[in-house]
Write a structure and sequence with these properties.
Bound molecules: ligand LPWUO67N, flavin-adenine dinucleotide
Distance between the termini: 15 Å
Number of strands: 15
CATH superfamily of the largest domain: Butyryl-CoA Dehydrogenase, subunit A, domain 3
Number of helices: 22
Number of domains: 3
Amino acid sequence: MVSYVKIPSHLKPSDPQGPDLLTQERNLASFDVKELTLVLYGIKDLERYHTILKIIENDPVFDKSNIYFMGRNELFEHAIKKEKRLVQLIRENKWKVEELQFAEWFLDMPGPFGAHRGMFIPTLIGQGTKEQKEKFLVPALNYQIIGCYAQTELGHGSNVKGLETTAIYIPETDEFEIHSPYLTASKWWVGGLGKTANHAIVMAQLISNGKNYGPHPFVVQIRDMKTHLPLPSITIGDIGPKFGFNSTDNGFILFEHVRIPRFNMLSKFSQIKKGTGEYINPPNQKLSYGTMVLVRAIIISGVRVTLARAATIAIRYSAVRRQFIDKDEPKKLEDGSIVETSILDYTMQQYRLFPVIAQSYACFFTAKMMVNLYTEYTKQSSSGDYSLLADLHASSSGLKSLTTTMAVDSIEDCRRACGGHGYSSFSGFVKFYQDYLPNTTWEGDNYILTHQTARYLLKTFRQVTSHKNPEIYASQSNKNPTISYILQYLNEPNQKCTAITPSDFNNHEIQLRAFKHRVAFLIANVVDQIDNQKKSWNSMLVEINRISRAHCQYLLVQNFITALHQPSEDESLRMLHNSPALKEVMTSICNLFVLHTMEKDIGDFLESEYLTTPQARLLRIQVYNLLKEIRPNAVSLVDAFLIPDSLLCSALGRYDGKVYETMIDWASKEPLNGMTLDFNPNNDTFIRKAKL
Ligand SMILES: CCCCCCCCCC/C=C\CCCCCCCC(=O)SCCNC(=O)CCNC(=O)[C@H](O)C(C)(C)COP(=O)(O)OP(=O)(O)OC[C@H]1O[C@@H](n2cnc3c(N)ncnc32)[C@H](O)[C@@H]1OP(=O)(O)O
Ligand SMILES: Cc1cc2nc3c(=O)[nH]c(=O)nc-3n(C[C@H](O)[C@H](O)[C@H](O)COP(=O)(O)OP(=O)(O)OC[C@H]3O[C@@H](n4cnc5c(N)ncnc54)[C@H](O)[C@@H]3O)c2cc1C
């Protein structure tokens, strides 16, 4: 890239230790960073990581040096080139999903094929019959057809049952007629639809013999395979500029009595019989919502690296950035000279940032739980057993909501912790935040999803309490955390915390009991208000949100603590258990996650009277103690995430700490610096001409 401004060469570094600050931080670590990285990735994935990163970083098509200067059209063109090159690489290197996921992560460029890979293909895999897979999945996997997932409409997104697009079965021709009766039935927001896709999975109300069977998925060809023009009776467009995600063509589509063969209704679970139009029921009514469950689980798995990325930038920058001389504890160099304090040494900065590191590690262990649960469900459902679906739906909904909300809040906290430079695109936060933000809305608005989790919790509570002998459920409490804490609460509703010193709060048993008691207390309270005081669902929505949040926080806490203590077959966990240094630092991080989470929601713990006010003060002191304990390891803890500079795309968070040099280098490349843009105050005109 061209530099438009020549930087003077006389400048000396103002900070004599500047370049070495991160090295000094790294020397403080109490553990082996490479060992922790291995725990996070596992041997196989770490090899994959390096192989894929090398390919991506060396490919000129993926060069991101201009990325912060691109407008919408350039971004979209860049994304198209990226997609095409990615497909070539997939073919050349025979990449599978595992490799592709690394490539997509490193590329960090939401593109028009995202919904094809993330929604269209998984829906065909999950809901298509063998014949349908042959017809649609095989060409989709080969990129001969490009698909999107058209569910949301202009008028309805959250309320899937309220969708207005219809698919009416026509027995005479053995076809469905896809139709958008109202403007509000226009499919809207659909990723890849605006300019790219030639096929769509359309969620539409299935109507046969005049009866509505609810939303079902249909494969519809939407553009001509040669001309790429919309097919007759189909209107398509891009929905326009957005808060972020502008490298993707989110689109709208309207259908005017479009006919498709009966074959195109995805029929693994429910079918329409030829001629008679008879509806064959699915084994579970909600199986047509299956893609949403999968993608929610994938989103939860992705949160840990999102938090890791935000924390890496903010922690490294805070170590390099110095501001003010601390009057009580001035920082002295070896030669006795006094220098300004690194902002990472300010306790307020630690209090804002270290919990983000802890959240990332917490999400790592819960992602493992989510993957295990999803795998178990897939195994069972392949033999017709869908009994895990309710659990899976409840935990994936609530955790998607809690963890993505946590992620967007933390990205913004980290950005602000970088002061003014955090507001520059060069911080690496701006596009990152904009592109990540829809995770709180898509695949279910984060507030709506908590209703689903709460429904499940209330139902379980009622089931257990209405039984004459609730202990009958004890055998399930090992596998089902909800039953476990409900039983504990019923046995001892007035349980009290036994901590008498700050360090007592490091006791994992005390921590678990606190979270179990709090969530059961909150659920019992909501059940009482709805069942006995006859409160409406709507009037309880704030409490509904609270119990989903409390339950999912408990899951995060429980998964972290279990990972530290329980013997496991899992390769990563075994490495962790075998290294006392790693176990020690992970225990501090776990304690910080648990106690900081408690402190933030202290009202719940006080209200349930598990904690007293003096204990709340002790807890806060222990949070401060943990910040001090973690401080020497802060930079190494984020280094262990191994987020490459090419992904961070940040002047502030780069591994070598050369913040200021990069800021001015990137600023010199701002195209505005290549123009003369003068304002002539005498006649109120702007004069703009290219410099060269
Ligand atoms: C080889 C190549 C592979 C490549 C792979 C690459 C991988 C790449 C990864 C990419 C990852 C991510 C990409 C992300 C791209 C995302 C783009 C965004 C796309 C979208 O946003 S699509 C649109 C999403 N829309 C929504 O999520 C809508 C949200 N609304 C709903 O889900 C529902 O309307 C609802 C809120 C759940 C309510 O539903 P409904 O009114 O029908 O149900 P009730 O509340 O009355 O409940 C009835 C009953 O049903 C249970 N239930 C509800 N939903 C489900 C479900 N999904 N599963 C199971 N059970 C469900 C509910 O609990 C009730 O049960 P009960 O009666 O209480 O027992
Ligand atoms: C970048 C992006 C990409 C997307 N890609 C796709 C795609 O590829 N395919 C696709 O089909 N969709 C896609 N979507 C759409 C997305 O899935 C929906 O926007 C999302 O499900 C939310 O639905 P909604 O917009 O109807 O929100 P609404 O339901 O209108 O929500 C608005 C507000 O009302 C509140 N609210 C609504 N109902 C209730 C209630 N019952 N109780 C309490 N509060 C309530 C919500 O909490 C929210 O705050 C995408 C969206 C974005 C932003």
